[in-house]
Amino acid sequence: MANPVTLFCFREDKTLSNALGVFILTTIFYTFGASLRLVDELSLFWPLNGIMAGVFARHAFLNKPLYYAICYVAMLAWDAVTTSWGVASLAINLSNLIFIVTVAMLVLRDKSRQPQLPQAMFALRLFGYCLIAALLCALCGAVGSVGIDKRQLMPLYADWFSEQFSTGVLLVPWVLTLSWPRVRHLPAKDDLWPLLAVIVSLGVSVLVGGAGSLVFPLIGLIWCALRYSFSTSAFITFCTGATEIVLVAYGVIDMNAVSPLGTNQMFSTRLGIATLAICPLIVGASVAALNAVMRQVSRRADYDHLTGVYSRSGLYEALSQRPRAPSSLCVLLIDIDYFKSINDNYGHECGDAALANFGERLLALVGMNGMVARMGGEEFVVIRSGIAFSEGLRFAEMLRTTLAAEPFHWQGQQLHLTVSIGMGFDEAPVTAMRETFDMLMREADSFLYQSKRAGRNRTSCRAHGEAQQSGEAIQTDR
C-alpha cells in the first residue's frame, strides 16, 4: 500500500505547520468521537485513533516524540475543557496514543523491511497490527476508565478492545490509501451496481435483524472490491461497518442476543464487523496486485525490453487507438549501418548494449513529438504527424547527423554508428491510421533500400510536389 500523495498539508521541512496540523486533526476527530458518546462514558465510535495511526504511518517524518506529544496534549486539552475526568484522562488518552504509536510503528517497519510487500499480504498483516494495538490500548484504557465508569474491569476491557479493533480495521486501510479524487468521467450505470448492492443489503439487515444480518453486505462489499480501486472499496467498507455499528447501537438492527461473558451486544457486533471487513480488503488488495501485474505484462508486450521503445505489436496497438489519420503523416524507417560487424567483432553483448544506447538516444531526440518503435533487429521506425514534407525531411536529417556525431563507448573503445533512413510521407491521408502507416512503411522501406544501395549514411525519399508523380527520389548524405 504505497502512499499515493502527501495529505493534510504535512511537509518534512515544515515543523511548525506539521505540529499545528497534528493538533487540529486530533482535536477535530476527538470532538467527533466524543459527540457519539452514549449513556456510558465511552464513545460508540472512535475514529481518532485509526485516523491518526494512518496519518503517522503515511508520513514517516511525523514519527517523532514531538508530534506524538502534541497529539497527546491535544487530547488532554479537549478533556480538560469538556470533562471532569481529572487524572483518569491521563490514562485514557495514553491508551489512545498507544494504539496510534503501535500501528504506525509496525506499518513503518514493514515498509522499511519489505517495501515491495504484496498488498494482500500487507492487508492481512494490518489486521494483525490492529489486533495487537487494540489489546494494548484496551488494557490501559480499561484500567483508566474504572474510576469514571460503574462497570467492572473485564466488561470495560472487552468494550475498549472491540471498539479499537473494529475501528482500526475499518479506518487504517482507507487512510493509508487515501488520495485526492480524480474524476475523469461520470460513472457508468454498471459501475453503480456494487454500491447499490451494499445499500440494499443494509436495508435488508434492518428488516431481518439478528446477528446474522450483519454479514448481509459481505457479497456487495466483495463485489465493490472487484470493481473499484482498493482505496474506494476500503472507504465503502469503512462506511458500511460504521453504519452497522450505529444501527445496532440505536436498536435499528435488533440483535436480541446476550453474551455469555456478560459483555454487552456491542462486543460481538464489533468483533464480527472487524472480521467481516478484512474479507473485501484482502480481495481488493489482491485485485490491485493482479491489475499491477497485468499492466506490467501489457507493458512488456507493448515495449521492447532492450531499447525501451515500442515493440512492433505495441506500435500497432497504439495506432489502433487513433483510428483517424492526421492531416499529414511522416514515417521514417531507420537502419543502423553495418550493425552485423559489431556483433561479429565485439560480441552480442556489445551489440545489445549498442542497441539499448541507440534506442535511448533516438527516444530522447524524438521526445513527445512522435512515436518510436523497434521493428526488429537493428531497424527502427519514427512516426511524425501534422508536419510538412520539408519539416519531415529536416527532422530525418537531424536524427541522422546527431546519431552519427555521438560515438558509443564500449570497454574503452569508441564505436561510431551511422544510420540509413527511408522516408514515407502523405500530406493528406484518406485512409485509417493503420492503413496509412502500412502504406507509408512500404514506401519508406523501398527508399531505405535506395539509401543502402547509394552508400548508406543518408536519407532517401520521394520528391515532393510535381516531381512526386514521376517517382523521382531525393537523397541526402554527408
From TrEMBL:
The keyword Nucleotidyltransferase applies. The chain crosses the membrane at residues 20-39, 60-78, 84-108, 120-148, 193-226, 233-253, 273-293. NCBIfam families: GGDEF (TIGR00254). The keyword Nucleotidyltransferase applies. Gene3D superfamilies: 3.30.70.270. Pathway: Purine metabolism; 3',5'-cyclic di-GMP biosynthesis. It comes from Franconibacter daqui. This is diguanylate cyclase. Its cofactor is Mg(2+).
